[in-house]
Amino acid sequence: MIGVFASAVLYVAHVLATPVIWDGRASLNLTAADLDSSTGPFLTVVKGSEAATHYSQLLGDTIAPTPLWGTDSEQALSVSIDNSSVFLPGGSNPQYGFRRTDIIAAVDGQHDTLITQMETGTTVFHFSVQQDASRPLNYSHEYQVAFIEPNDGSHIFELQLGSPFTNPTGQLPAADAHSFKVLDHALNVLFSTPFTADAWHNFAVEVDWNARTLAVFYSQDAEPLQSVTDTVPNSSAASGSAGQGDFHFGVLKLPLVNSADSPSNQNDVVHYGIQEGTTEALLYSGVFVEDASGGVSTGSDSVREA
Q1: Is 299 helix (H, G, I), strand (E, B) or coil?
Q2: How far apart are the first and last CA of the chain?
Q3: Which segments cross the bilayer (predicted)?
Q4: Bridge-based pairing state of the strands 280-291 and 18-23
Q5: What pLDDT score does 1 carry?
Q6: What per-residue string of b and e applies to 120-143 under the rule 16 or more CB within 10 Å gives b?
Q7: Which domains does the chain have, with CATH numbers?
Q8: DSSP-derived secondary structure letter, 72
Q9: Got the DSSP string for 208-260?
Q10: Residue 295 to residues 236, 260, 290, 304: CA-CA distances in angstroms?
Q11: Rounded CA gap, 252 and 189, in Å?
């Protein structure tokens, strides 16, 4: 029954156009200077001490973006971390436990108004991810690579890779370390799929902000998005403005436990733990947010501008 229902919903979604609220598909005229100054659709301040373009590069015609939405007007984006990727929120209290480069949905550096626009009613968060073979991840670590983060630091949903952080440390890498995991606010795994090489992995997460539910869609390369979950409760997330926050994508690498740290500090993943300092990266494309009132866009003929 679920398969029949999902097929009907997908057919309707595929032929209906839904308006884009925020478009993070990097246009061909977006420049490195735009990344450094947070001009355009991205806020690029969550990073290490170097300029934004040390960690994030527009790829032009060197790597084709996901074909799901057509490739004529978009360029893919590389997001990387290295040992300088220590973020200082507010210019102090460095996050030595993390290595992170986050791209935040914004319009010319402004994001507060956009949050309300993206996170009212029912909206859909799209993002496509590909491996960077020259700068692979270390799958013994946990990576949080797409999420919405309210002020309390939780995630409304999260796309995760690698071995989830545990204290004490378990077997590394974890059995499912090379798979994507889509998590709800309570960290339940809603969907998992292998992160295979040489393919764009396309995701869409539908968020009903009033009913506090989630639904996940997935495909590879040019294949239309398919429903891969039921609509499921996300009731542990706060309601109203307390449950709203910035939409992030990038590379956030958690540490491993350092036995030399005190017991209390071993659980402080933000400020303590082991990081190897290697350069690692992911490729992104097809990042945008749409209003779901007309259905979920599943491919290039089912999405339109607002």
Answers
A1: coil
A2: 34
A3: none
A4: antiparallel
A5: 28
A6: eebbbbbbbbbbbeebebbbbbbb
A7: 2-291 (2.60.120.1160)
A8: S
A9: ETTTTEEEEEEEETTSPPEE-S--EE-TTSPPGGGG-EEEEEEEEE--B--TT
A10: 25, 52, 9, 12
A11: 19
pTM over 0.85: yes
- My answer on whether omega of the bond before 168 falls inside 30° of 0, hence cis, is yes
Q: Pick the more confident residue, 90 or 104.
A: 104
User: Which tokens go with 294?
Assistant: 């007309």
Kindly state the tokens that stand for 227.
């429903």
Structure tokens at 11: 């057919």
Tokens (6 digits) for 202: 């396309």
Locus of tokens 């990097």: 26
The pLDDT of residue 294 is 84
Query: What sections of the chain are H helices per DSSP?
Result: 2-15, 32-37, 52-55, 112-118, 263-266
Which has the closest alpha carbon to 111: 44, 57, 28?
44
Phi-psi category of residue 38: left, alpha or beta, with phi > 0 → left and psi -120 to 50 → alpha: left
